[in-house]
């Protein structure tokens, strides 16, 4: 997966970013959605996941972003901290 790709999930977009750190990769995700006021962006929605290869790091971060989106959908009054 390209770290510049967006993943569409339940009306949200997951935006992964990955950076090489020494011989490993660190990845995290922002999430965003369109609302009446424009785009609502949650930067740094996930913590950084460090893995041996870029794809594994991005996959771990995206899995966490999906959990964050599911939590927001389940309880819209809860905001990401």
Provide a short characterization of the protein structure.
With 81 residues, the protein is of the alpha+beta class. The protein has one helix at 54-74, and strands at residues 7-9, 12-21, 24-35, 38-42, 49-51.
Q: How are the SSEs ordered, and which strands pair?
A:
Elements: E1 7-9, E2 12-21, E3 24-35, E4 38-42, E5 49-51, H1 54-74
Antiparallel strand pairs: 1-2, 2-3, 3-4, 3-5
Description:
The structure is a single chain. This protein is of the alpha+beta class and 81 residues long. Helices cover 26% and strands 41% of the residues. It has one helix and five strands, in the order βββββα. Strands 1, 2, 3, 4 and 5 form a five-stranded antiparallel beta sheet that branches. A hairpin with a 2-residue loop joins strand 2 (12-21) and strand 3. It is elongated.
Give the strand tally: 5
Major beta sheet summary: 5 strands, antiparallel
Report low-confidence residues grouped into runs of 5 or more. Answer: none
* Rg over C-alpha atoms, rounded to the nearest angstrom: 13 Å
Count the helices. How many? Answer: 1
Q: Overall 3D geometry? A: elongated
Distance between the amino and carboxyl termini: 27 Å
Q: Please tell me the overall pLDDT.
A: 88
Structural class: alpha+beta
**Quaternary organisation:** single chain
SSE series: EEEEEH
What fraction, in percent, of the residue positions are helical?
25-40%
Q: Work out the strand percent.
A: 35-45%
């Amino acid at each position: 997966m390209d770290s510049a790709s967006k993943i569409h999930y339940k009306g949200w977009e997951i935006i992964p970013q990955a950076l090489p750190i020494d011989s490993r990769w660190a990845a995290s995700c922002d999430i965003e959605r369109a609302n009446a006021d424009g785009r609502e962006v949650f930067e740094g929605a996930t913590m950084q996941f460090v893995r041996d290869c870029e794809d594994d790091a991005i996959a771990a971060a995206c899995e966490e972003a999906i959990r964050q989106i599911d939590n927001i959908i389940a309880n819209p009054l809860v905001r990401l901290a």
